[in-house]
Fold:
Amino acid sequence: MSIKKYLLAAGSVAATAGSMAATGGLVTPTTASADPLPPPPPPAALPSWAGLYIGVTAGGATQFAQTHSSANNGVATSPVSNSLTKTGFIGGGQIGYNFQSGTWVYGLEADISGLTGKASLNASQVIGKSIATTVNQIDWLATFRGRFGFVVAGDTLIYVTGGLALARVNNSFGYGSGSSFVDDSVRAGPVGGIGFEHLINQNWIVRIEALYADLGQKTVHSTNYTGGKTTTFSNQVALVRLGLSYKFPPF
Structure:
């Protein structure tokens, strides 16, 4: 072996020995053999508001009524005009269906409720003349509404709502022991409001809602008075109620 080849072989042996000494005699694994990092978890899915729901509601309702009458009992010359307000309980049930697109929720809802509270007034409308009796009451209220809302904080919905209200009203006005003008009818009018809902879980929803409905007016005539005597009744209702609904999976 030539001196040159001997020196190259000796250098190679020395380099290998130095590498083994530095690693304690073990071969260092390459980075290619290291375990790969686990993939990141998928983003959490948004809570679903979509689907059919049914529920119950309860709260308070304030009824407003205005009565204007040209009846004067044959002696009084001034028209009668008064406004009455009565607050009572409202409770009933609801059914609806929601659609969802991202954080936007929209749908339709129908509900019906019974109301308590009868406003009445017994007073002389003209000093020294006969006592006039006014009674105003809404027996039940049903609404048919669209809803449109925005999801905040993942599980809370803020929405606006509007549509048609139907209600059974009982209004009367008259002098003495009888009511000569009676409005016992079902009235329709616009209704609108705002609400907040919270998903307890994927099946149960709680809400608080405020609505206002204007049921319009009706003019009635009486055969007890001559000369085309009339009375006009107007009715409105404002309500705030809590609700609990059970939501089914979407179709």
In short: The helical segments are 3-22. Residues 3-22 form the longest helix (20 residues). Residues 3-28 form one domain.
